[in-house]
């Protein structure tokens, strides 16, 4: 909104600042952060009153988690509120990439909300059927992927080898939708400890803030040998708003958490990161930057696969962060060490920009 108003006025005087992505990105971070911090206390109080017993806790999980009973969930609604308001104020809403990302973020958030609501209402950890959830997620991701390829094409770019970029044709829609859904669920699986998913999402958002800015600038993209995607630079503002909203939520989600993100937030943020990666044609790099989330998802797949075939477990408990808890690591130790891993992987992912 601010950008369109400034453009309508001809960017006079100080309003010329709104031409710059860096200024609007900073504004988006600050706005989302302040909104989240302001609405947080009342929002958490409202959730506590409405939910009563809060999020159900697994009896077969680490015993230390039983003390968290009564903690409200659906904190992702707070993230979505601060994120969407910030985007409405600072983004150029004529950009189709913005709408694709917002569509996935809101759509995945609503699927997560229905899942959280079902868990709280029934006081069970199952939630909505996994098949129904995936069907809804693929439908949303498919529409967003179609919007994206209409603007940026269907080529898949391979990191480290800038001359390898096969055109997947309409199969790219399937690949892109899978990337978005897979990453949304990977972040969802990671959200099992206080602050565990929030900071890695912030770190990944900062990394992609750099990537989309470079991909949207023809000079930088040509110099680095990465795909140039006109209009992708605007998503740096989107990433900035995610950083601000994530930091505000982390203020209340830091151990001991006053509120849980829930599927409402984890699915939305994971889906948003997946969509941003598809826009920038850095889907494979997402697997490096978001390697922590990939590791968490793979631990569940491996555990289920081997248990169904052998009756034995590879890990003491999956996702893998629970495995380390069962080994005797304290929750803060697991969280901080996983944050360090996320930071290192983000640096590794950013290094692919030059190693081509």
User: How much is the average pLDDT?
Assistant: 91
**What is the overall silhouette?**
globular
Mind telling me the C-alpha Rg? 20 Å
Strand content: under 5%
The assigned structural class equals mainly alpha
Gap from first CA to last CA: 38 Å
Note the total helix count. Answer: 14
Topology, number of strands: 0
Order of helices and strands: HHHHHHHHHHHHHH
Largest sheet: none
The helix content, as a percent range, equals 55-70%
Q: Work out the count of structural domains.
A: 1
Spans of 5+ residues with little confidence (pLDDT < 50)? none
Organism: Sphingomonas canadensis
Membrane topology: Multi-pass membrane protein
Pathway: Cell wall biogenesis; peptidoglycan biosynthesis
Enzyme class: transferase
What can you tell me about this protein's structure?
- This protein is mainly α and 356 residues long.
- It has one domain (2-56, 67-351).
- 68% of the residues lie in helices and 0% in strands.
- It has 14 helices and no strands.
- It has helices at 2-9, 21-51, 76-90, 96-122, 130-152, 171-190, 198-216, 218-224, 235-253, 262-279, 283-289, 291-310, 320-326, 331-351.
- Helix 3 packs antiparallel against helix 4 (96-122).
- It is globular.
- 48% of the residues are buried.
Quick overview:
Belongs to the glycosyltransferase 4 family. MraY subfamily. With 356 residues, the chain is mostly helical.
